[in-house]
Amino acid sequence: MCSMPGWISAGAGPVSALALTSPCAAGTYRYSKDTLPEEIGFLMLGAFAVLALLALGTVILVVVAKWKIFEKADQPGWAAIIPIYNKLIMLRIVGRPDWWIVLVFIPPVNLGVSVLLNIDLAKVFDREEIFAVGLILLPFVFYPILAFGDAAYIGPREASGEIGGITRP
Asked: Are 69 and 75 a contacting pair, CB within 8 Å?
């Protein structure tokens, strides 16, 4: 049994925050229902709510940016909110064949397809490869830059003869 000062023991009334860090023997901690205040639960709930709102805001930002990118490429903007159809439209924007949509459903291959699509997307908007790295690693930053910046869609034919390491016919 761990010996704790009387003001920390169970049933002692309000508990100080020090009770949360009071060690017992051999580095263990003893908590009772009185030593963990309800306020910590509310703090955790608040932190979760803030993180959830940030995640939702990020998703909305990327969807709005994709909507604008689709419109710049003369495609329907609403396609950005349809889960599989938006990949098909993205394939068309970058000039890849429609059958590549099957590759999106093969787990190890879909990562490579996603990388190639982002490289191709940078190219068809006349951006450098380093911009494609930004699209891959920080899409919530680079998709809005592409969407709301001065980037103009030049199309897959006008892009360089080689896109994503694969020479176009």
From this structure: no
Helix %, strand %, coil % of the chain (to 5)? 65, 5, 30
Show Cβ contacts of residue 161 under 8 Å, excluding neighbours closer than 6 positions: 167, 168
Q: Tell me which of 19-23, 29-33, 40-44 is least confident.
A: 19-23
CA atoms within 13 A on the CB side of 14: 2
What pTM, to 2 d.p., does this model score? 0.69
CA dist 122 and 102 (Å) reads 22
Centroid of chain to Cα 13: 44
Helix (H, G, I), strand (E, B) or coil at 152: coil
